[in-house]
Amino acid sequence: MEIRYATNPTDVKRYDTERIRKEFLVENLFKSNELNLVYSHYDRLITGGAVPVKETLKLEAGDLLKTEYFLERREVGIINIAEGVGIVTVDGEKYELNKRDCVYVGLGHESVAFSSKDSSNPARLYIVSATAHKQYPTQKIAIEEATPNHMGSDSQSNKRTIYQYIHAGGIQSCQLMMGMTLLAPNNMWNTMPPHLHDRRMEAYLYFDMDEDSRVIHFMGRPDETRHIVMRNEQVVFSPPWSIHSGVGTDNYTFIWAMAGENYTFTDMDSVSMDELK
Ligand SMILES: O=C[C@H](O)[C@@H](O)CC(=O)C(=O)O
Ligand SMILES: [Zn+2]
């Protein structure tokens, strides 16, 4: 498991492109027959990707967590981002995930495994885990059942629907919040005007992009912004002091996930356009 340490915004001012990418961008989570995890010291969030083809892939604590099993001190949300049906087996119980379906698995489950229903059409499972202090029920939710939030407008090129899966009004968790934002056709901007939430970090996974498509992701303090050029199926960690917003060269979708202190969406501070530099 790769580790990413937390950074100080005063230091980040001095980072060049290479260093910014090294600290915040996750490039290669999704590889056939592999389960890859990256541990961020921002709120100890783990993001990962599993692409089970022929074999079953197991979510394991490994050397880093120093626990008997992965969910001993954690909870996890999993979303399938491929057309191929994914199967998540939790202590023997199977959950089938179509594209955009999510399953939440609570603290204390010893065995979590991933497989594809059809190896010629494998699932691609995005994994986000945060630390947990009590068990909430394991639950599956399809995109149709998620809370939709209509945002933006055509004139601002940011018309989109935010689907909330794991949050106060949906699947309950200790601190993990997770959902997916779909842009309306011909709309390219997410999360603009931007916001901050100093009590939570966030991770964005951009996907459903063509090979040559890019999302230009903006980060940094509002008056000291930087950008990261991102490809399909890459993740970016957003520190609590950073804006997180992007514009695509083509259509894209993204999964956002947050962990930290407050368990509410509405405690975000909106950033006025005057503040951006
Ligand atoms: O804190 C909330 C997260 O940044 C996302 O929900 C924002 C988002 O999906 C969007 O504006 O498109
Ligand atoms: Zn946010």
UniProtKB/TrEMBL annotation:
Record-linked Pfam families: KduI
UniProt cofactor(s): Zn(2+)
Cofactor note: Binds 1 zinc ion per subunit.
Pathway: Glycan metabolism; pectin degradation; 2-dehydro-3-deoxy-D-gluconate from pectin: step 4/5
Spans through the membrane: none
Enzyme Commission code: 5.3.1.17
List of residues binding Zn(2+): 195, 197, 202, 244
The keyword Cell membrane appears for this protein: no
GO molecular function, one term: 4-deoxy-L-threo-5-hexosulose-uronate ketol-isomerase activity
Record keywords: Isomerase, Metal-binding, Zinc
GO annotation (BP), single: D-galacturonate catabolic process
Catalytic activity, as annotated: 5-dehydro-4-deoxy-D-glucuronate = 3-deoxy-D-glycero-2,5-hexodiulosonate
Family statement: Belongs to the KduI family.
Function: Catalyzes the isomerization of 5-dehydro-4-deoxy-D-glucuronate to 3-deoxy-D-glycero-2,5-hexodiulosonate.
PANTHER family cross-referenced by the UniProt entry: 4-DEOXY-L-THREO-5-HEXOSULOSE-URONATE KETOL-ISOMERASE
Listed name of the protein: 4-deoxy-L-threo-5-hexosulose-uronate ketol-isomerase
Organism annotation: Sediminibacillus halophilus
Lineage, uppermost ranks: Bacteria, Bacillati, Bacillota, Bacilli, Bacillales
